[in-house]
Write a structure and sequence with these properties.
Mean pLDDT: 87
Strand content: 25-35%
Bound molecules: calcium ion
Number of strands: 17
Oligomer: single chain
Largest sheet: 11 strands, antiparallel
Number of helices: 4
Number of domains: 1
Radius of gyration: 22 Å
Helix content: 10-25%
């Protein structure tokens, strides 16, 4: 009797496991907004459009510091995704990956530097400013654009110039040569995304910080406003956030969970519960 019961139980567990896994879904989201804030050179005048660059509608976003010949000023990219508009409320997010395309970097020589995502804690704006040429200098800010000083030009200042964000990085990726896709995918990004789904009012996206300890580290990625293709992969070069989630358990899911428990798989059920636990949201740096 015992010899036949064990395989039956294992088969039942495996069947239920695959049934639960089949509930998972994966979506690719395009940004709801992106922009770059450009550290200005003196003199500072937060009321001046010309002295507060932005690039809301530009093809590119930037992170890192420019070369010394341009005073080594900092650039920081902002990017946000509207998860609540596309993922059912109550879902449990299990995997998150951000993919960006690096279309330009300082090449004499190419230096591999880290670019980190930090969760923003203030809302910010993307208006119609559009820098010319390679866009490294930005364009005059337009009403509603984020700038180094403004969350939204020229009505709302950041609490601190350079943006309001959590000090701990959610993910870090080493960025090297151009014309390549790069990805960020770490557990804190899952916590960020879960927070944004559960509380859309706290969804301000990420800021991208390059290596700001030295100059000439600036990296240029394609924005959501780009129309470029990567010829190697024949893919658009837009920023993409890939999110895998399990919708809120329905009655069938609950029955499966109950059956799993009754089959004596308590340890596995506890492990699942831990994996679904949500990280508390931190509201201040
Ligand atoms: Ca944009
Ligand atoms: Ca442009």
């Amino acid at each position: 009797m015992r010899g036949t019961t064990v395989p039956v139980v294992i088969c039942a567990i495996l069947s239920l496991w695959f049934a639960l896994a089949a509930h998972a879904a994966t979506l690719e989201l395009l940004p709801a907004a992106d922009n770059t804030i450009y550290e200005p050179a003196p003199p500072f005048d937060p009321s001046s459009s010309e002295l507060n660059p932005s690039n809301g509608a530009g093809d590119f976003i930037f992170a890192g510091r420019v070369a010394d010949m341009n005073e080594g000023l900092r650039r920081r990219a902002l990017v946000g995704f509207d998860l609540a508009a596309q993922i059912p409320a109550g879902s449990i997010i299990t995997e998150v990956t951000l993919r960006l395309y690096l279309s330009q970097t300082i090449t004499a020589p190419v230096v591999t530097t880290d670019v980190s995502l930090h969760r923003l804690t203030s809302t910010w704006g993307e208006a119609a400013s559009d820098a010319s040429g390679q866009e490294g200098g930005g364009a005059n800010a337009i009403l509603g654009d984020a700038t180094w000083f403004h969350a939204e030009f020229d009505t709302t200042l950041w609490q601190l110039p350079g943006g309001d964000f959590l000090p701990q990085a959610s993910a870090t990726t080493a960025i090297g040569d151009r014309n390549l896709f790069y990805t960020w995918s770490e557990p804190r990004m899952i916590a960020d995304a879960q927070c944004w789904l559960d509380d859309p009012g706290q969804n301000f996206g990420w800021i991208l910080l390059g290596d700001e300890s030295v100059s000439a580290t600036a990296k240029r990625f394609d924005s959501r406003d780009s129309f470029s293709f990567d010829l190697t992969t024949n893919r658009r070069t837009l920023p993409v956030l890939t999110v895998t989630y399990v919708p809120e358990p329905d009655s069938a899911g609950l029955m499966m969970a109950a059956l799993l428990a009754s089959l004596g798989t308590r340890r596995r059920a506890v492990a699942l519960g831990n994996a679904h636990a949500r990280t508390p949201f931190t509201t201040s740096p």
